[in-house]
Amino acid sequence: MKKTLLLLSVLVLLSACGKRGPLVAPETLVPAPIKDLKVEQKGNRFQVCWSAPGREEWGGPLTDLAGFRVFRREVLPPDEDCETCPSAYRQVKTVDPEYLRDVLRYGSLYCFFDTELTDGKTYQYKVISVDAEGASSQDSNKVRRKKAAPVPPPRLSAVPAPRGVMLQWKQDALPVGGVLEGFAVYRRQEGEGFMPLSPLTVVKADAAGFEDPGMEHGMPYRYAVRTVAVIDGEKVESDLSNEVEGMFSLSE
Known about the structure:
Blueprint: H1 2-17, E1 38-42, E2 45-51, E3 65-75, E4 90-95, E5 104-106, E6 109-114, E7 122-131, E8 143-146, E9 155-161, E10 164-170, E11 179-189, E12 201-204, E13 210-211, E14 220-231, E15 234-237, E16 244-247
Parallel strand pairs: 1-15
Antiparallel strand pairs: 1-2, 2-6, 3-4, 3-7, 5-6, 7-8, 9-10, 10-13, 11-12, 11-14, 14-15, 14-16
């Protein structure tokens, strides 16, 4: 109703002023479609992330975003697959920006973990945005991902080093056919509730460890590591390892 009144007001003003310009089609008074949907495997789960649109489809600012709906379908063999069939997609998540619950938010980026997955099956995702009046955006970009066997996380330890701490890890055997690519190192400061989405660095598979060159004097940090491997052609990461603590203190 609010957007309808806004459109009518614009038309009245243009008519009163004797001016003509490009009109805003009612169907474009909805959130712009999401274009950066991304799906990654972390441990036994898919991490599904996207950015909230900041504008309506016609180009004006979006001021009444109410949430998101995440849909998933199982991709079947070519002779059985039917993306346009009414029952192809199933809604797996409803996201309310005011009540995130198990959804993570980093500025305009939203992420959640999908766990209802089966090894060897391929899934396709899409997301739509919804405004306060219930109007939906067009579909986001669609992303496919094959669920691979999970990679075991490394066992992390820390030993003293000149710059504070040297991280070292041991890796259990990968699933059959898996190729080790490296290790993703994550860091958070004391008091932060969880590790960031992006790693501090990714080191090569043959690295013996990692010494953080960016530690601030007197600041305690916590570290965790994910194993990065390629399995069945898909790059996957393990769950986070155990956490260890490190701090750089100047020697007297």
